[in-house]
Design brief:
By secondary structure, this protein is an all-alpha fold. The chain has a domain at 53-258 and 276-282. Helix content is 72%, strand content 3%. It contains 15 helices and 2 strands. It has helices spanning 5-8, 16-26, 28-43, 50-75, 83-99, 104-128, 133-152, 166-169, 182-200, 202-212, 214-219, 224-250, 261-271, 283-302, 307-331; strands at 171-175, 178-181. The protein has a two-stranded antiparallel ribbon. The longest helix has 27 residues, at 224-250. It is globular, with a radius of gyration of 22 Å. It starts with a helix and ends with a helix.
């Protein structure tokens, strides 16, 4: 028999051009991010300065920290709509504790534990009672916001220790002439840690397996219920940390804070390439998407466009990202 594969080339795999196109489609968020950065640079000479880059990361940190936790949840095929309310509650809780004279370190630790507990409780209801996470966390969104108002009857809390603001405002030298805000640096470090966890730990493997095919993962003996509880706990922990950072930056506990934050977090995760159906995505993609949304806000401000335009574009971005992710799934043979 003669081998015709060398003559026809039909079985040699995709061409270089096809591979380049596939790579661009797969990492579309990076291409879009670079394009938007170029546009922003043309609109403002100060955009690519060290000061502005530090400010961008500082402004994106609260949404970014929440989006890191949201990435874990969505990778399992679930969703957490309560993150904005948890951020508000934990931001108020740490303010109340500090105003009452509780040690700052203890106040922060208590707040982190409470946030993680909120997340784990919703994960437990989702996993053990087989209730869709959308319903569970929607109830959490309402109830945790109500608890936030009940905490101080809806009154902001001021009089926080002056040193507490250092958590978000300290400038840390990274390069000659380049100082990064501690708030932005925390966000970057969390992205690094979360990426390592997802890529190189058993937990990361289980998260992808649970989201990719929950039934197969369960039959293979994976503790899928515990994984779901764990990822919601991580989301709650990240939301609590974001609340602490927000209160530190504002220097006041604000019960109305973080309204609609869940929309920005979900938009960032999905735009960054994480599939809403679970099993595919990365924190690196989330990082790029968070910064993309922040740069877009800067462009809107430069153009004098208000928040209504920003909300509209954010919604369009979510729909476009979902459609693109679905297209990628179909392309790769996923149903």
């Amino acid at each position: 028999m003669t081998d015709t594969t060398s003559d026809t080339g039909k079985h040699q795999g995709p061409s270089l051009g096809a591979r380049i196109v596939d790579t661009i489609i797969q990492y579309n968020f990076v291409v879009i991010f670079l394009f938007v950065v170029v546009i922003a640079s043309l609109l403002s000479d100060n955009f690519l300065t060290f000061t502005n880059i530090s400010n961008l990361f500082q402004q994106a940190a609260v949404v970014g920290v929440v989006a890191v936790g949201m990435t874990f949840v969505i990778l399992t095929g679930n969703i957490d709509l309560s993150v904005g309310s948890v951020v508000a509650f934990c931001g108020m809780l740490v303010a109340v504790l500090l105003a009452a004279g509780v040690d700052p370190t203890l106040s922060v630790l208590v707040t982190l534990v409470v946030g993680a507990s909120f997340g784990m409780s919703m994960g437990a209801i989702t996993a053990l009672a087989a209730v869709p996470s959308f319903i569970v966390t929607l109830a959490g969104l309402v109830s945790f916001r109500g608890l936030t108002y009940l905490l101080t009857d809806g009154v902001p809390v001021s009089g926080l220790p002056s040193g507490f603001s250092a958590i978000s405002s300290t400038m840390i030298p990274l390069l000659p002439g380049f100082n990064m805000s501690s708030m932005g640096l925390i966000f970057i470090l969390l992205c690094v840690v979360a990426t390592l966890v997802l890529r190189y730990t058993v937990l990361g493997e289980y998260v992808y397996a649970t989201g990719g095919n929950p039934e197969a993962a369960r039959l293979a003996g994976l503790p899928t219920r515990r994984i779901i509880i764990a990822v919601f706990g991580i989301s709650g922990l990240m939301s609590a940390l974001a609340g602490i950072l927000l209160t530190s930056r504002l220097r006041i506990g604000q019960p109305t804070a973080a309204q609609g934050l869940e929309l920005d977090a979900i938009a960032a995760v999905v735009l960054g390439g994480t599939s809403l159906f679970g099993g595919r995505g990365s924190v690196v993609g989330t990082l790029f998407a968070v910064m993309l949304l922040q740069v877009l806000r800067n462009i809107f401000n430069l153009l004098g466009l208000g928040s209504f335009y920003q909300m509209t574009v954010t919604g369009i971005i979510i729909i476009a990202a979902i459609l693109l992710n679905r297209f990628l799934d179909i392309r790769k043979g996923r149903s």
